[in-house]
Amino acid sequence: MRNVHLLPQTRQLRALHTVVRDRHAGLDAFVLHSRRIIRLLLEAGLDQLPFTEHDVTTPVGATYRGLRHATDVCAVAVVRAGESMEAELRDILPGVRIGKILIQRDKQTKLPHLYYSHLPPGIADGHVLLLEPMLATGGSANAAIDVLLKAGVREERIVLVDFIAAPEGLAAVAEAHPHVKIVVSSVEERLNEHAFMVPGIGDFGDRYFGTTDSGAR
Length: 217
Hints:
Uracil phosphoribosyltransferase, PRTase_dom, glycosyltransferase activity, Rossmann fold, 6 helices, 12 strands
């Protein structure tokens, strides 16, 4: 897919995934290795933003033909799993403004329902990193993107940052929002009959924040 940017599938990245996918991984190991992958994802996400030329003078008096971001950037975390990416983003961009969106699937209709949103002021004027670690069916991601569009954010200015994604979810977002860029560290094999990703990682939010004893989902 044209707007899907998969991290380089290095041996190092696979080693990190080996730890976080292990159902027996402890909380400290899961968080440590997840944060390392998150940092790679966020740097890749920022690389999708526009740049302008910016020259600087080096300590030896030479000119370095450099770049700097050409636009304001903020982030929106899809609660709760998306909040796992906030600390790493603040390390990279101190002072970055981060909004929140809470979307949950209705138990009766199985459709995503928006419960809460609080977006940074002026969000429509720049680019947005949408933080959503798990892209399974794509329903929640599309609902979150719709919230941003209603706030005036242009579709091509949204970068969706996913830890892992299913092919079904990537296709659903690409069909509904073809101009949104997606950055992901792994594309899974498929969804199972319960709409869980295979091989998967379990409930990312529960495992990251220590509210479950098992990643076996």
